[in-house]
Amino acid sequence: MANLSLLQQDIEKKIEETKQKFKNEYVQESDKYDSRDVDRLQKDDALVEAYLTWRQYSVDDALKMIDDSFLWRKEFGLNDLTESSIPKWMFETGAVFLHGYDKEGNKLFWFKVKLHTKDAKTIMDKKKYVAFWLERYAKREPGMPLTVVFDMADSGISNIDMDFVKYIINCFKVYYPKFLSKMIIVDMPWIMNAAWKIVKTWLGPEAISKLKFASKNEIQTFIDPEYLPLHMGGMDPFKYSYPPLPDDDFQTPTCENGPIVSEDDNESKEGESEGKELESSFSSEVAVKPKKVQSSLKLDDNDKGDCRTKGARKPLTTFKGPLLNVSPAEELSFGTKESERKCLIILDNVSKNQVAFKVRTTAPEKYRVKPSNSSCEPGASVDIVVSLHGGYQASLQDRFLVMAAEMEQNAGAGSPELAQFWKDVPKTKIMDHRYTTINVSSWTGMGISTMQFMAKANHAIMRTTPHIQTHENHISTRQVPVISQMILLFDNVLLYIHKNLV
Questions:
Q1: 181: domain range?
Q2: Residue 450 vs residue 224, higher pLDDT
Q3: How many CB atoms lie within 10 A of CB 352?
Q4: 332 located within any domain
Q5: Cβ atoms within 10 Å of 254's Cβ, excluding its own
Q6: 100, part of any domain
Q7: Which helix (H) or strand (E) segment is 48 a member of?
Q8: Are 382 and 295 a contacting pair, CB within 8 Å?
């Protein structure tokens, strides 16, 4: 523990040294960088550490990378890049998009190579298009890596633009540190072998280890069939179309007594998936201890009291946000035992007004949520029970989204009023809080590889600072685990070793 503490102190010193040197040696001209990027760097230790880690903790190398990255961000206007900034035809081609997850829970960034053609007139639009997707994901899921998939089916030499490929590599090599989980080349024609040998020379040692070549038969090593298209032997019926943007996977879950019929079925999909231009800043701790009250939903007699939450896994961590304190902070943990098939989400209203909330998930067929669409009075608390249906297991690909927004005083809280509220509330007023899920039984049973385990542990430990991303009045929270999560994880591993090896 002493060595770990010393190591952390060394890292913190390098972070401070990097920030100070950048301020003193690079920020000379007031208009050299976007001031929003400079401000973020001074406040966001996790961002500085990402640059340092990517450059083996060399401060000088990290500073050069930050300089290159910030110059590029200003040139491309990243902080102001929106869906409307990109020519509509770029979205309509379906050549680049976010959809699905790999086996480690990383979002998939698809490049349909056959839809690309080399054209000097459109190269800048293509580059901005890629930047749009990367920035959109980075702000929605800070700290979460991407898996890039080059779908080479039906492609040929005419579809390869080496300048564009080099740009994509630089996005991960320079502009977005620690953002690449892996890069998978699927079904590459033999005629392109020479081109990809050139590509390898552009990659550093770290990136080369992330480059994977796979046939249609091998791709399921990395991605489950449910997220693979039919031509790769998968079962994903997804077909790209625009509008809307395809990266909003959240759907209405099932309530305790059956499917919910609500405003979610009538909302404009285009509006739901609008690009959200966010800027990073930080949350302030809200020291409010709200009183405990029942949900504003009317409960059946057999749902009253503690019956509804009995057996639910109690949260140990809390994210303190501007409208709601949300527990747990980041992950919902499920297992195969009956006692591990329910999780409790607690929402504490720390605002001065009534707050409406609703819960969505990427796997509505697997989970039951109650309440999933209700409201919470000022100073009150609501318990939300998330139950895993029998026959299903939680996976890293499963996501939950808690949406919340302040209501006006004396606003009605019935189903019709809430449905109308969600139709009328501006997207910039909605707070998003996202969850991933973990399967406790697979971890404690060592159902993941040692490398995956250590990657998960390192990823969770390093992200120890809560973020709030804001743009005008829009609020989007990204939850961060605390050390208690890791203590529980290591306790489980030690228990397994004791039972099986000692």
A1: 81-232
A2: 224
A3: 9
A4: yes
A5: 19
A6: yes
A7: helix 45-54
A8: yes
